Q: What sequence folds into this?
Protein backbone atom coordinates (compact mmCIF):
# COMPACT_ATOMS: atom_id res chain seq x y z
CA UNK A 1 0.00 0.00 0.00
CA UNK A 2 1.11 3.58 -0.60
CA UNK A 3 1.66 5.43 2.67
CA UNK A 4 0.93 9.14 2.82
CA UNK A 5 2.65 11.24 5.49
CA UNK A 6 1.65 14.81 6.21
CA UNK A 7 3.58 17.40 8.14
CA UNK A 8 3.05 19.08 10.42
CA UNK A 9 0.23 17.23 12.22
CA UNK A 10 -0.98 20.57 13.52
CA UNK A 11 -0.05 24.20 13.27
CA UNK A 12 -1.07 27.45 14.84
CA UNK A 13 -1.44 30.48 12.62
CA UNK A 14 -3.09 33.86 12.42
CA UNK A 15 -5.47 35.42 9.94
CA UNK A 16 -3.44 36.72 7.01
CA UNK A 17 -0.58 34.24 7.44
CA UNK A 18 0.81 32.19 4.58
CA UNK A 19 0.94 28.53 5.49
CA UNK A 20 2.19 25.39 3.83
CA UNK A 21 1.35 21.76 4.49
CA UNK A 22 3.54 18.98 3.14
CA UNK A 23 2.48 15.53 2.01
CA UNK A 24 4.95 12.79 1.17
CA UNK A 25 4.11 9.51 -0.56
CA UNK A 26 6.02 6.30 0.14
CA UNK A 27 6.45 5.81 -3.61
CA UNK A 28 5.97 7.92 -6.70
CA UNK A 29 2.34 8.75 -7.38
CA UNK A 30 2.99 11.08 -10.33
CA UNK A 31 0.37 13.81 -9.87
CA UNK A 32 -2.45 11.60 -8.52
CA UNK A 33 -2.69 13.65 -5.36
CA UNK A 34 -5.71 15.47 -4.00
CA UNK A 35 -6.30 17.79 -1.05
CA UNK A 36 -9.44 18.00 1.06
CA UNK A 37 -10.58 20.36 3.81
CA UNK A 38 -12.72 19.13 6.67
CA UNK A 39 -14.33 21.27 9.34
CA UNK A 40 -15.42 19.79 12.63
CA UNK A 41 -18.54 17.67 12.27
CA UNK A 42 -18.75 18.24 8.53
CA UNK A 43 -18.01 16.19 5.43
CA UNK A 44 -14.70 16.72 3.64
CA UNK A 45 -14.58 19.10 0.70
CA UNK A 46 -12.31 18.83 -2.32
CA UNK A 47 -9.85 21.71 -2.66
CA UNK A 48 -7.17 20.60 -5.11
CA UNK A 49 -7.05 17.65 -7.51
CA UNK A 50 -4.24 16.29 -9.66
CA UNK A 51 -1.71 17.97 -7.37
CA UNK A 52 -2.27 21.52 -8.59
CA UNK A 53 -5.73 21.98 -10.12
CA UNK A 54 -8.13 24.14 -8.15
CA UNK A 55 -11.58 22.61 -7.73
CA UNK A 56 -14.50 24.74 -8.88
CA UNK A 57 -15.57 27.34 -6.36
CA UNK A 58 -12.43 27.07 -4.21
CA UNK A 59 -10.81 30.44 -3.46
CA UNK A 60 -7.59 31.22 -5.31
CA UNK A 61 -5.67 31.63 -2.04
CA UNK A 62 -5.46 27.83 -2.06
CA UNK A 63 -2.82 26.28 -4.29
CA UNK A 64 -1.09 22.93 -4.68
CA UNK A 65 2.23 21.89 -6.12
CA UNK A 66 4.49 18.89 -6.43
CA UNK A 67 4.79 15.60 -8.25
CA UNK A 68 6.29 12.19 -7.65
CA UNK A 69 6.55 11.82 -3.88
CA UNK A 70 6.50 15.36 -2.48
CA UNK A 71 3.53 17.70 -2.50
CA UNK A 72 2.61 21.01 -0.89
CA UNK A 73 -0.67 22.72 -0.11
CA UNK A 74 -0.34 26.47 0.33
CA UNK A 75 -2.85 28.94 1.71
CA UNK A 76 -1.53 32.37 0.74
CA UNK A 77 -3.50 34.45 3.23
CA UNK A 78 -5.31 32.51 5.92
CA UNK A 79 -8.92 33.49 6.46
CA UNK A 80 -11.10 32.74 9.52
CA UNK A 81 -13.06 30.12 7.58
CA UNK A 82 -9.84 28.23 6.72
CA UNK A 83 -9.31 26.92 10.23
CA UNK A 84 -9.93 23.22 9.66
CA UNK A 85 -8.18 19.90 9.12
CA UNK A 86 -6.57 19.21 5.75
CA UNK A 87 -5.96 15.80 4.22
CA UNK A 88 -3.94 14.68 1.24
CA UNK A 89 -5.11 11.63 -0.71
CA UNK A 90 -3.49 9.46 -3.36
CA UNK A 91 -5.59 7.98 -6.15
CA UNK A 92 -2.85 6.28 -8.16
CA UNK A 93 -3.92 2.79 -7.13
CA UNK A 94 -6.12 0.93 -4.69
CA UNK A 95 -6.18 0.92 -1.79
CA UNK A 96 -6.54 4.67 -1.92
CA UNK A 97 -4.90 6.21 1.10
CA UNK A 98 -5.06 9.48 2.99
CA UNK A 99 -2.52 11.36 5.02
CA UNK A 100 -3.19 11.52 8.75
CA UNK A 101 -4.39 15.11 8.52
CA UNK A 102 -3.07 18.53 9.45
CA UNK A 103 -5.12 20.58 11.88
CA UNK A 104 -4.84 24.33 11.33
CA UNK A 105 -5.68 26.24 14.49
CA UNK A 106 -5.76 29.83 15.54
CA UNK B 1 -28.17 20.69 -7.20
CA UNK B 2 -25.72 17.80 -7.04
CA UNK B 3 -26.42 15.89 -3.84
CA UNK B 4 -25.63 12.66 -2.03
CA UNK B 5 -27.67 11.56 0.97
CA UNK B 6 -26.65 8.59 3.09
CA UNK B 7 -28.94 6.52 5.28
CA UNK B 8 -29.00 3.24 7.14
CA UNK B 9 -26.56 3.89 9.95
CA UNK B 10 -27.27 2.85 13.51
CA UNK B 11 -26.23 0.79 16.50
CA UNK B 12 -25.37 -2.85 15.83
CA UNK B 13 -23.81 -5.59 17.94
CA UNK B 14 -20.42 -7.07 17.05
CA UNK B 15 -20.87 -9.77 14.43
CA UNK B 16 -24.04 -8.13 13.15
CA UNK B 17 -24.93 -6.69 9.77
CA UNK B 18 -26.02 -3.37 8.40
CA UNK B 19 -26.79 -1.99 4.96
CA UNK B 20 -25.97 1.61 4.11
CA UNK B 21 -27.58 3.45 1.22
CA UNK B 22 -26.69 6.60 -0.65
CA UNK B 23 -29.24 8.43 -2.80
CA UNK B 24 -27.77 10.51 -5.60
CA UNK B 25 -29.42 13.42 -7.39
CA UNK B 26 -28.53 16.30 -9.68
CA UNK B 27 -26.15 14.40 -11.94
CA UNK B 28 -26.06 11.37 -14.26
CA UNK B 29 -25.28 8.73 -11.64
CA UNK B 30 -24.56 5.98 -14.16
CA UNK B 31 -21.60 7.94 -15.58
CA UNK B 32 -19.57 8.00 -12.38
CA UNK B 33 -17.50 5.73 -10.23
CA UNK B 34 -18.74 5.96 -6.64
CA UNK B 35 -17.12 5.25 -3.31
CA UNK B 36 -17.38 5.03 0.46
CA UNK B 37 -15.01 6.69 2.92
CA UNK B 38 -15.22 6.35 6.70
CA UNK B 39 -13.94 8.23 9.70
CA UNK B 40 -13.66 6.66 13.12
CA UNK B 41 -14.25 8.76 16.25
CA UNK B 42 -11.45 11.31 16.53
CA UNK B 43 -9.60 9.72 13.62
CA UNK B 44 -8.67 10.57 10.05
CA UNK B 45 -10.28 9.60 6.78
CA UNK B 46 -10.12 6.01 5.54
CA UNK B 47 -11.13 4.97 2.04
CA UNK B 48 -13.37 1.87 2.16
CA UNK B 49 -14.47 0.90 -1.35
CA UNK B 50 -15.07 2.05 -4.94
CA UNK B 51 -17.33 0.75 -7.70
CA UNK B 52 -17.23 1.30 -11.45
CA UNK B 53 -20.36 2.58 -13.21
CA UNK B 54 -21.14 -0.83 -14.74
CA UNK B 55 -20.18 -2.72 -11.53
CA UNK B 56 -17.50 -4.69 -13.38
CA UNK B 57 -14.80 -3.39 -11.05
CA UNK B 58 -14.96 -3.11 -7.28
CA UNK B 59 -12.12 -2.31 -4.91
CA UNK B 60 -11.93 -2.59 -1.13
CA UNK B 61 -9.56 -1.72 1.67
CA UNK B 62 -8.05 -4.93 3.03
CA UNK B 63 -9.69 -4.59 6.46
CA UNK B 64 -13.21 -4.93 5.00
CA UNK B 65 -12.61 -7.26 2.05
CA UNK B 66 -14.83 -10.33 2.36
CA UNK B 67 -17.10 -8.64 4.93
CA UNK B 68 -18.36 -5.58 3.04
CA UNK B 69 -19.96 -5.48 -0.41
CA UNK B 70 -20.39 -2.34 -2.47
CA UNK B 71 -23.14 -2.28 -5.07
CA UNK B 72 -25.23 0.18 -7.04
CA UNK B 73 -28.57 0.48 -8.80
CA UNK B 74 -28.18 2.89 -11.71
CA UNK B 75 -31.91 2.81 -12.42
CA UNK B 76 -32.56 4.16 -8.93
CA UNK B 77 -29.48 6.40 -8.67
CA UNK B 78 -28.50 4.54 -5.55
CA UNK B 79 -25.28 3.24 -4.00
CA UNK B 80 -25.16 0.65 -1.22
CA UNK B 81 -22.70 -0.83 1.23
CA UNK B 82 -23.62 -4.18 2.75
CA UNK B 83 -21.63 -4.68 5.95
CA UNK B 84 -21.41 -8.09 7.62
CA UNK B 85 -19.44 -9.50 10.55
CA UNK B 86 -19.14 -6.03 11.97
CA UNK B 87 -16.40 -5.25 14.46
CA UNK B 88 -15.93 -2.47 16.97
CA UNK B 89 -13.25 -0.99 14.72
CA UNK B 90 -15.89 -0.47 12.00
CA UNK B 91 -17.49 2.19 14.19
CA UNK B 92 -17.32 5.37 12.12
CA UNK B 93 -19.13 7.98 10.13
CA UNK B 94 -19.53 6.58 6.62
CA UNK B 95 -19.47 9.03 3.73
CA UNK B 96 -20.68 8.36 0.21
CA UNK B 97 -18.62 10.16 -2.44
CA UNK B 98 -18.75 10.73 -6.17
CA UNK B 99 -15.52 9.86 -7.94
CA UNK B 100 -14.64 12.14 -10.81
CA UNK B 101 -11.91 11.86 -13.39
CA UNK B 102 -9.92 14.81 -14.65
CA UNK B 103 -6.19 14.23 -14.85
CA UNK B 104 -6.73 11.68 -12.10
CA UNK B 105 -9.45 10.36 -9.83
CA UNK B 106 -10.73 12.52 -7.01
CA UNK B 107 -13.82 12.63 -4.81
CA UNK B 108 -15.58 15.84 -5.74
CA UNK B 109 -19.01 15.46 -4.10
CA UNK B 110 -19.61 14.08 -0.62
CA UNK B 111 -22.67 13.25 1.40
CA UNK B 112 -23.07 14.40 4.99
CA UNK B 113 -22.43 10.92 6.31
CA UNK B 114 -24.24 8.29 8.35
CA UNK B 115 -23.01 7.00 11.70
CA UNK B 116 -22.40 3.32 12.37
CA UNK B 117 -21.76 2.23 15.95
CA UNK B 118 -20.71 -1.36 16.63
CA UNK B 119 -21.07 -2.11 20.30
CA UNK B 120 -22.58 -4.67 22.64
A:
Amino acid sequence: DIQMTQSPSSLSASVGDRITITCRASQSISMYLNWYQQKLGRAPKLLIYAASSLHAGVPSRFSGSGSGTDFILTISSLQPEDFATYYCHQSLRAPWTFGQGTKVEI
Amino acid sequence: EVQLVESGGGLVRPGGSLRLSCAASGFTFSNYWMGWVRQGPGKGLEWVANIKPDETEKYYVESVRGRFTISRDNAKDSLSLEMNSLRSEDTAVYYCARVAWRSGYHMDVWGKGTTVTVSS
Q: What stands out?
A: The radius of gyration of chain B is 14 Å. The first strand of chain B starts at residue 3 and ends at 7.
